[in-house]
Amino acid sequence: MTTLLTDSEQQQVAAAITEVERETDAELVTVLAAASDDYSYIPLLWAGVIALLVPGAINYFTGSLGADWLLVVQWVTFILLCLLFRFPGVGHHLVPKAVRFWRASNMARRQFLEQDLHHTQGGVGMLVFVSEAEHYVEILVDQGIADKVSDGVWGEIVGTFTNQVRSGDTLAGFLGCIESCGQHLREQLPATREKNELPNHLVLIPKRS
Q1: Which of 51, 86, 168, 177 is 20 to 30 A distant from 72 in Cα terms?
Q2: Can you give the pTM of this predicted structure?
Q3: 124-141 pLDDT, tens per residue?
Q4: Nearest to 134 by CA among 186, 92, 184, 91
């Protein structure tokens, strides 16, 4: 079960961002989503496919059901599977990893735009995005940072952070990630002006009800 950070933990993240931004021109925004999708359509899809194929296959090989009973068995199977797949521990495993990461990646890019990171002076916006349910971490940067720091640098930081999210250490992951990013930003984009174009607080996206 995923839980978003407490108020005190959010304040620690905000303080870490403020500290880094004092020494760099970059603008950091952090986003923590409980989940990137509810994936409700996937359990329904599985239930439909199983209810259609399994009773039909059994009847094909045994001939034990007439057309009316076959339809009833398919309906009952679909309803029971829908109820079973509503349990989070079951439904979660029905969603392919590629689908979960695709949805999380899409949300990260939407957040980059929604948080106005593409409108900073000099193109120095950076997003640190985490989706807890998917154990997904991504760092997105605008062109002003991309020109100075290679993607491989962020990849190493993301790898470490992802392991921490997977083990439940989301706060430590955020703090470590912000500090690691700050080290590279201080070197490549040192502060040349006073600025605070974007808010420093952690943006929380709760799970859909």
Answers
A1: 86
A2: 0.79
A3: 999 999 999 899 999 999
A4: 92
